[in-house]
Design brief:
By secondary structure, the protein is mostly beta strands. Helices cover 0% and strands 57% of the residues.
Length: 70
Amino acid sequence: MPEDNRNVIYGKLKNQYHKPLHNAVIKLIEVSKDFGKKKRIPITHTFTDKDGEFVFGPLCPDKHYEIQVW
């Protein structure tokens, strides 16, 4: 089997009382620089599950990502 260098981003969203936050929207944004200016490209989104967990992947190596919570 060939080696796979792809990664995932995952996490668990909690409120200020440390309780899981379900059905929150998590957006995945690819961040790049274009002529010195930061460029943000929305890639996809998902929702947290009943335990407040989410996952994105597999992701391309050598790219920069950020997440936004709604």
